[in-house]
Amino acid sequence: MTPLTRFLTVFLFIFGPVTVSACGTDSQCKIGDRHYYIALPDGYDGKTRIPALVFAHGFQGSALGIIRNQRLRKVTNDLGIAFIAVKSLGDTWATENSPRGNARTDALELAYFDAVTRDATERFAIDADRIVMGGASTGGMVTWWLACKRSDDYAGFIPMSGTFWTPEPGSCSGRVANIVHFHGDKDRTVPLEGRAVAGTRQGNVAVALEMYRAFGKFGAVRAENGGGLRCENSANRAGNIVNFCLYDGGIRFGHPTLRSPGGCCGRRGRFDANAAPWSSDQGN
Predict the structure, then answer these.
(1) What three-state secondary structure class fits 279?
(2) Which of 66, 81, 163, 218 could in theory staple to 208 by disulfide, Cβ–Cβ 3.0 to 4.6 A?
(3) CB-hemisphere CA count at 13 Å for 95?
(4) What CATH architecture is 3-247?
(5) pTM of the model
């Protein structure tokens, strides 16, 4: 199993019967004036319920660029899961405290993600209990933001190379989620401690992790190294996990790996993760 393939074992979800749809990998799935793309695995019978990964692009990226990423497509296809690429309001995600974010745009972005999951589960009958959210760079920031605001809607969260904008929240709402965060130790675009950007500042990953471990009553951190990753993993009494893994270098499309196909996303908010790296070229 390649590192790429190992990554997305993070997500075993399940689709349901698929209705005829005019959208997919080459045509937009329209929701109002916004859109997403979706790729279904080869040989999908349209009846068996399969999982789905929602993936958020980085700064100046696009849903089209993500859906055309052949490494991601191969991994999700090999795993037999759906792959959903989402698109920001502008050229980046306009969430709270971001350079282009305000209360109005924050609400619009939240409404968009609500609409995407609702539309995808209705149009393609995706199992709402088996959706995992991931993203890189500002897409990773969106992933953390959703973990704090929409934890009931996803089985888990895989932020990569991004966390909140400052000030980091003091706590979160909703149930405690499962989070696996990956970051390059030499990332200059989104450093671990954050950096100033256009009048605001990227958050500090350590602060975000400390907040969330306190919020979820997570236990002692244990070190687990291997496969090019240096991880600090923790769990709570309910079985939720917060894993933080460093790899050498800067931003990459490097992703978490949930190896256990049967255990990754049992019900909403539940998965078992054995972190292992997969790497590819940097992307949007």
Answers:
(1) coil
(2) 163
(3) 27
(4) 3-Layer(aba) Sandwich (3.40)
(5) 0.83
